[in-house]
Design goal:
Elements lengths: L17 E4 L8 H7 L20 E4 L11 H9 L10 E7 L2 E9 L3 E8 L12 E2 L6 E7 L6 E8 L4 E4 L6 E2 L7 E2 L10 H5 L1 H5 L6 E5 L17 H15 L3 E4 L3 E2 L12 E5 L6 H13 L3 E6 L25 H4 E2 L4 E2 L6 H17 L4 E4 L2 H5 L21 H17 L4 E4 L21 E3 L1 H11 L10 H5 L1 H4 L5 E5 L11 H4 L4 H17 L3 E5 L24 H19 L13 E8 L4 E6 L8 E6 L5 E8 L4 E7 L16 E2 L10 E7 L4 E6 L12
Parallel strand pairs: 12-13, 12-23, 13-16, 16-19, 19-20, 20-21, 21-22, 22-23
Antiparallel strand pairs: 1-2, 3-4, 4-7, 5-8, 6-7, 8-9, 8-11, 10-11, 14-15, 17-18, 24-25, 25-26, 26-31, 27-30, 28-29, 28-31
Helix pairs in contact: 5-6, 8-10, 15-16
């Protein structure tokens, strides 16, 4: 059984600890007395004397002792922006010093003239527990407070150089109070992990030539307690329900929308204040680790949404942390986001880069996360993003690229892949910026994958069109293959497409009820057979009729109806097909993994293409009919002679389709078609997808003779 490392660090003992002889019942110091009266339960307790001789010695400690986990090398790395494990140093850490258990506090506030710990244990007294500023110009304030342990609630009082009085939560706190409360809590991330098999073989699950089908979800609204619909499920409760569901549906990964601590629930987690803390709305850090562990045990990878693009201006958060623009860029043209009314990190500041990269590695390290989906990358890359003329300034070369952000993203990806080569970073990037998912050494940003936003918008627009008029929009559905291999693309139908009046996925589809559901089954079939990895937002997998509402549970009750059962069944079948057929994933990012058979039949709105893997015997033929008109005796050219069998049909009755299928295997004929010497004659279902694979020829067994 592998144990997760506890917090470790290079500890510098206090130089001025006083050791005095006294009787065992001697009076405690004022600091110890205040700690003893703290309402929070402290994990730090006085140790009993081990012998009579020891009983005559008591350590007399000040309220705050000089103590540090930083070495000179740590400080040099921090100043240069190369310290990628700051979570082992900054923040609050329960340690033992001079035989007494207490907590070491360290915070970066270079423009402060006074910093103290205010907490339950000292009655939120700003003057009782001042921290010591380091002598090396790092701007770090630190100190050891005896008899303070896990569970203690605290903040930092900061008196800025301009005279402002600030009360700030700890940027490196591992746990926060449940919102709307805003204080930090002394905590640890120790956990007895039992996912050693997954971690040892993670590369096989996470490689870009492996099936990669992601279930995107919002923890607070996936499901609620039936008895108490206003209460959230805890991470532990979620594990009992979510893990078997994702396994049943066949998704290879789950992606959680941000679970880092955020004060405003309607932000969906994208306005983060506690970057190192799992949201206390849903439980403790260890409960989240339990959820990750159970997903791993079921063979399911875990991706977290990560938001290095901006943060909110809440008074207790990062904004003007020490009275100055410490984390955000001071120039509002670079430091303020006009759309989200939030603040943009200063990517040119070394300490801020170290903060962000340390945060990324923290989730991969302490929580065994398998990937990070980086939110709003486009907003980071461009100085003129969402800004009018005159509201932005060009870079040193006269361009609109944010060179500091570009440099940061490259360094972030290099750090992630050097420390965790078996994970993936995924960019939500909506522009044509070159090389987002190409290695840094070739000039790229270094991401593993990039969301294919153009494909998503074109596909939804095409499928929203009445089938009668789709022949006039044929290029919308074929255009993606022109650029499909310029990046390692992930095909997303994300949460952004089912909110703010955009309608649910099924209600984007035209036609009567049958046609709506047939169209949606066809759209998902197109998605799973198109090159690239896949992402589907929760509720879309069973055709929820309402838009996503983060205040409520998904509409699970609709699964009482056959049409919704059919959508769920088709997504499950597509996930299984995706994992079983190497042609659908082995060359998902390579041009020779795809070949048009007929991409120009706009009049019939029919698409036919091949998907290929490393073995030509695994080649598939995909036929998509974008109209409700079935076709019989429709000829399709094939490369290989033999029998071809239909292995999937979205119009099957088990999916609530009409049942227009190719039941028997089909022999090839030597009829030249689609530029191929051989062809097959098939039936094409209405608003349906049919997938064919060549039947393997099994040589007859030799009979044993007596």
């Amino acid at each position: 059984m592998a144990k997760k490392k506890t917090d470790t660090g290079n500890e510098t003992p206090a130089a001025n600890a006083e050791v005095k002889k006294a009787k065992p019942a001697a009076k405690k110091t004022a600091a110890a007395g205040k700690a003893a009266k703290a309402p929070a339960v402290s994990a730090a307790k006085e140790k009993k004397p081990s012998s009579k001789k020891a009983a005559t010695v008591e350590i007399i400690l000040k309220n705050v002792e000089v103590y540090s986990r930083f070495t000179d090398f740590d400080i040099a790395l921090f100043k240069s922006g190369k310290h990628y494990k700051l979570y082992e140093k900054l923040g609050s850490h329960v340690v033992e010093f001079s035989g007494v258990t207490g907590t070491y506090f360290a915070v970066w506030a270079p423009n402060a003239q006074y910093v103290s710990v205010i907490a339950n244990f000292n009655g939120w007294d700003r003057g009782s527990h001042p921290l010591y500023v380091r002598w090396d110009g790092s701007g770090i304030w630190e100190g050891f407070i005896p008899n303070v342990g896990n569970g203690e609630t605290y903040k930092y009082y900061i008196n800025s150089s301009t005279g402002e009085d600030l009360e700030k939560a700890d940027p490196f706190a591992l746990r926060w109070e449940v919102a709307p409360h805003t204080a930090s809590i002394v905590a640890d991330t120790f956990y007895e992990w039992k996912d050693g098999d997954w971690m040892a073989n993670r590369y096989g699950h996470n490689g870009i030539n492996r099936p990669y089908s992601v279930y995107e979800m919002h923890v607070g609204s996936w499901a609620r307690s039936v008895e108490s619909p206003d209460e959230f499920l805890t991470y532990s409760q979620l594990a009992e329900k979510l893990v078997p569901y994702i396994k049943e549906m066949g998704f290879t990964h789950v992606e959680f929308m941000p679970i880092m601590e955020h004060p405003y629930y309607p932000s969906w987690g994208y306005q983060i204040t506690g970057f190192f803390a799992a949201s206390s709305r849903y439980g403790t850090p260890q409960e989240l680790m339990y959820l990750v562990e159970k997903l791993h045990e079921a063979g399911i990878g875990v991706i977290l949404d990560w938001v290095p693009s901006h943060f909110p201006g809440d008074a207790h958060g990062l904004y003007k942390f020490d009275g100055s623009h410490l984390f955000e860029h001071a120039d509002p043209r670079k430091g303020f986001h006009p759309d989200w009314k939030s603040y943009i990190f200063n990517y040119g500041r070394n300490e801020v880069r170290a903060f962000l990269i340390s945060n990324a590695l923290f989730w991969l390290d302490r929580y065994h996360v398998d990937g990070l989906r980086v939110d709003a990358v486009a907003s980071m890359l461009y100085l003129d993003y969402s800004r009018k003329h005159g509201e932005w300034e060009t870079n040193m070369y006269g361009g609109n690229e944010n060179l500091e952000a570009v440099s940061f993203l490259k360094e972030f990806n290099e750090a992630v892949y050097s420390h965790f080569p078996d994970v993936q970073t995924i960019a939500e990037e909506s522009t044509s910026f070159t090389g987002v998912s190409r290695p840094v050494y070739t000039g790229g940003l270094g991401f593993g994958m990039k969301w294919m936003m153009g494909w998503m918008h074109d596909s939804i627009k095409y499928f929203s069109t009445d089938p009668l008029y789709r022949k006039y929009h044929h290029n919308q559905i074929t255009f993606s293959l022109i650029y499909a291999f310029t990046e390692n693309f992930m095909l997303p139908f994300s949460h952004d497409e089912v909110v703010y009046g955009k309608g649910s996925m099924v209600n984007k589809m035209p036609g009567d009820e049958w046609q709506k559901f047939a169209n949606l089954r066809l759209l998902y079939s197109y998605m799973f057979t198109h090159p690239g990895t896949k992402l589907l937002f929760m509720g879309c997998e069973f055709g929820q009729g309402n838009e996503w509402n983060f205040q409520n549970s998904l509409d699970w009750h609709v699964l009482e109806y056959a049409n919704h059962q059919g959508i769920k069944a088709v997504v499950k079948a597509l996930n299984e097909l995706y994992k079983e057929e190497p042609a659908l994933y082995e060359k998902g990012f390579e041009g020779d993994g795809f070949e048009w058979v007929d991409g120009g039949n706009a009049n019939d709105s029919i698409l036919i293409y091949n998907r290929k893997g490393y073995d030509e015997a695994n080649e598939l033929i995909i036929v998509l009919n974008m109209t409700p008109l079935p076709h019989y005796n429709f000829r399709v050219g094939v490369h290989s002679k033999g029998k071809w069998a239909e292995i999937f049909n979205s119009d099957a009755k088990k999916f609530w389709g009409s049942g227009t299928e190719n039941i028997d295997a089909i022999n090839t004929e030597t009829v030249n078609w689609h530029g191929r010497e051989n062809s097959i004659s098939i039936t094409i279902p209405p608003l349906g997808a049919a997938i064919f694979k060549r039947v393997k020829v099994v040589p007859p067994k030799y009979e044993l003779k007596k």
